[in-house]
Amino acid sequence: MNTALDISTSALVAQRMRLNAISGNIANMTTARNEEGEAEPYQARFVVFEPDESMRTSGGGVGVKVASVETETKEPLLKYQPNHPLANDQGYVAYPNINLTSEFVDALEATRAYEANIGVMEITKNMGRETLRIIG
């Protein structure tokens, strides 16, 4: 039973990291400068998961872990703003190429996965309680 809870916990941790990356992407949708103040648009980040074999159960279930946090390689969106202080010689400013709709869909999916794992933890906990009641 503890392994089942560990597997769900690993999923909660992984989905939380995914939501952190998504919220960072949304927060930086209009960030056109890097940390040094240079004209460099923010690059969206996404989380890559992989199975965590250290949590393998006898029934074949495995946990999940974050393999890496990658950076998108999309070309920036260019907006014509000739009076902007970060405009290039042609008058274009480079902004992050982040699709808000896709980010919301990813956030919704991560939230649903998080909720599903909470549900699995509740079911596992109830099964343990009932088992102890039957035995006792």
From TrEMBL:
InterPro entries: Flag_bb_rod_N, Flg_bb/hook_C_dom, FlgC. It comes from Lignipirellula cremea. Its main location: other. Residues 90-133 form the Flagellar basal-body/hook protein C-terminal domain. GO terms for cellular component: bacterial-type flagellum basal body, rod. Keywords: Bacterial flagellum, Cell projection, Cilium, Flagellum. It is found in: Bacterial flagellum basal body. The keyword Iron does not apply. Belongs to the flagella basal body rod proteins family. Residues 5-31 form the Flagellar basal body rod protein N-terminal domain. It holds the Pfam family Flg_bbr_C. The basal body constitutes a major portion of the flagellar organelle and consists of four rings (L,P,S, and M) mounted on a central rod. The rod consists of about 26 subunits of FlgG in the distal portion, and FlgB, FlgC and FlgF are thought to build up the proximal portion of the rod with about 6 subunits each. GO terms for biological process: bacterial-type flagellum-dependent swarming motility. This is Flagellar basal-body rod protein FlgC.
